[in-house]
Amino acid sequence: MKKILGLAALGMLVGCSANQSKETEYQETRECMTYRSMMTAPMAPDAMQRLREACEKSRS
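Request: output the structure for the sequence above.
Response:
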C-alpha cells in the first residue's frame, strides 16, 4: 500500500513540474545574448546602457 501511495505522489509531482506555463519563458534574443555577454566587459556606461535598451526593445 505504501508503494502505491508513494508512486501516486511521485506521479503527481512529476506531472505538476512538467506543466509549467510557457508565459514565464521568453526567447533569448540576439541583442539580449550580446548584452549578457558584455555585462562584465570594461565598457563606457553609455554603451552598456544602449546594449541594455536594445535587449529590452527586442523582447517587446
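Residues 35 and 51 are 5 Å apart (CA to CA).
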